[in-house]
């Protein structure tokens, strides 16, 4: 760790055999204890859908999930030991996996984007256009794996209704019409639907803005259940995860300024509706 930043490079997905094995062990121990998924979900304080995703090997278990599962299933130590050998599921870039693990349990997640619509808000058609545009080109099988991973991440928006999500998006992202007019119209409709959820705030940074606190690039921030904050910045071929409070504080201040500079949630929704109608 240098100045609170951890950087990794590489995009090849790892095997998910360890995730499936871990999930099978959790399910076997749960059933041996006579617990339904719903009952077990209440004990570990995660949603039933999250429990199912872990048991099916589709999701990396959060450390809190592992600890609570141990307590609920007899404190044998088996799950803690097994968790140390887990590899992230296919479809997520190597540098993104650590952030994705924190993201899955975050109680607040803030995102500013100036390059593309964030993965959590993407539609399938929009995401597939991004996959088609990747270089070196992806094979069909690789695209399917990447979309499956992204679709699984997107569930966070509806599976974690108590998590606060804030998105500041540049107006230009919609004007670019990635994938064409129909893809953009569908994307706008989807984001407008997400904006109706109580825990999701969408703000648009207008195309014309004399003062802008985010010109240095995208920002992602999150708060964990134990009130720790992390930040993540991603580039072309790698990402940086920041844990140093001083570094995170700088990005928090920039994000707070951008929220004040962007359109209000109501005005952002109105702008998106007008733009969608004009397509």
Which helices and strands, and how do they pair?
Layout: E1 5-9, H1 17-32, H2 37-44, H3 48-55, H4 63-72, H5 78-83, H6 97-103, E2 108-113, H7 124-132, H8 140-154, H9 156-159, E3 164-170, H10 172-175, H11 181-195, E4 200-205, E5 219-223, E6 229-234, E7 238-242, H12 245-261, H13 265-278
Parallel strand pairs: 2-3, 3-4
Antiparallel strand pairs: 1-7, 2-5, 5-6, 6-7
Helix pairs in contact: 2-3, 7-8, 11-13
Features:
single chain, 7 strands, 279 residues, 7-stranded mixed beta sheet, globular, 13 helices, 14% strand, alpha/beta, disordered N terminus
Descriptive account of the structure:
With 279 residues, the chain is an alpha/beta fold. Helix content is 48%, strand content 14%. The chain is globular and about 60 Å long. 29% of the residues are buried.
Order of helices and strands: EHHHHHHEHHHEHHEEEEHH
In the predicted model, the low-confidence regions spanning at least 5 consecutive residues are 1-15
Q: Which percent range fits the helix content?
A: 40-55%
Number of strands: 7
Kindly name the structural category.
alpha/beta
The N- to C-terminal Cα distance equals 47 Å
Strand order, largest beta sheet? 1-7-6-5-2-3-4
Mean pLDDT: 88
In DSSP terms (H or I, runs of 4 or more residues), the helix count works out at 13
Main sheet record? 7 strands, mixed
Strand content: 5-15%
Radius of gyration: 20 Å
Shape: globular
């Amino acid at each position: 760790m240098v100045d609170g930043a951890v950087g990794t490079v590489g995009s090849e997905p790892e095997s998910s055999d360890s995730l499936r094995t871990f999930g099978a062990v959790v399910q076997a121990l749960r059933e041996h204890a006579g617990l339904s998924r719903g009952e077990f979900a209440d004990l570990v304080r995660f949603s039933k859908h999250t429990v199912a995703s872990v048991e099916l090997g589709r999701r990396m278990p959060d450390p809190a999930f592992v600890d609570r599962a141990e307590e609920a299933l007899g404190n044998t130590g088996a799950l803690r030991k097994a968790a140390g050998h887990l590899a992230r599921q296919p479809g997520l870039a190597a540098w993104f996996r650590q952030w994705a693990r924190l993201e899955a349990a975050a109680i607040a997640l803030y995102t500013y984007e100036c390059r593309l619509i964030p993965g959590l808000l993407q539609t399938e058609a929009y995401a597939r256009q991004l996959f088609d545009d990747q270089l070196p080109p992806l094979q069909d099988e690789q695209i399917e794996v990447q979309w499956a991973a992204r679709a699984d991440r997107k569930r966070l928006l509806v599976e974690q209704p108590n998590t606060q999500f804030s998105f500041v998006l540049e107006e230009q992202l919609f004007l670019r019409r990635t994938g064409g007019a129909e893809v953009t119209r569908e994307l706008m409709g989807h984001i407008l639907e997400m904006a109706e959820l109580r825990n999701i705030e969408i703000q648009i940074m207008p195309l014309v803005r004399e003062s802008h606190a985010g010109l240095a690039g995208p920002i992602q921030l999150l708060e964990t259940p134990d009130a720790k904050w992390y930040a993540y910045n991603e580039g072309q071929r790698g990402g940086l995860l920041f844990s140093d409070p001083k570094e995170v504080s700088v990005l928090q201040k920039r994000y707070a300024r951008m929220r004040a500079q962007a359109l209000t949630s109501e005005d952002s929704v109105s702008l998106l509706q007008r733009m969608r109608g004009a397509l």
